[in-house]
């Protein structure tokens, strides 16, 4: 599957979850539900993946944890906040650069309409 095909599946799964439960749950609950929905769609996922950061001769083990990495091609960062801040976008972009991933989705489930909570970030590598 391409990054775009994977992204479509993730977005659809987010719609399914948000339609059923709406906003207001903890991020960990949405992560669990989204993981389940993606596994049902036969997608390979990894949760809370620690990614190393290499700086000169130093290796910082697990410098960050990605909420979900889908098919080793897409990072999904899950939020349940009143409002996304600029730092949330920057955080995901940095994760994508360090993990050498081209596409990321920043998903805020704490919105009235989930389409307003899904943001696509592209790393041009």
Automatic annotation (TrEMBL):
A Pfam family that this protein carries is PDDEXK_3
Q: From which domain of life does this come? A: Bacteria
Q: Write down what this protein is called.
A: GxxExxY protein
**Taxonomic lineage of this organism?**
Bacteria, Pseudomonadati, Bacteroidota, Chitinophagia, Chitinophagales
């Amino acid at each position: 599957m391409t990054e775009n095909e994977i992204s479509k599946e993730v977005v659809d799964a987010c719609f399914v979850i948000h339609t059923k439960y709406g906003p207001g749950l903890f991020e960990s609950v949405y992560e669990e539900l989204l993981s389940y929905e993606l596994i049902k769609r036969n997608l390979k996922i990894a949760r809370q993946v620690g990614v190393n950061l290499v700086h000169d001769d130093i290796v910082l083990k697990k410098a960050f944890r990605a909420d979900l990495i889908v098919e080793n091609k897409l990072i999904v960062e899950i939020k349940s906040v009143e409002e996304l801040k600029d730092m949330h976008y920057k955080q995901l972009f940095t994760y994508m650069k360090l993990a050498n991933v081209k596409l990321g989705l920043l998903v805020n489930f704490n919105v009235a309409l989930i389409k307003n909570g899904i943001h696509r970030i592209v790393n041009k590598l």
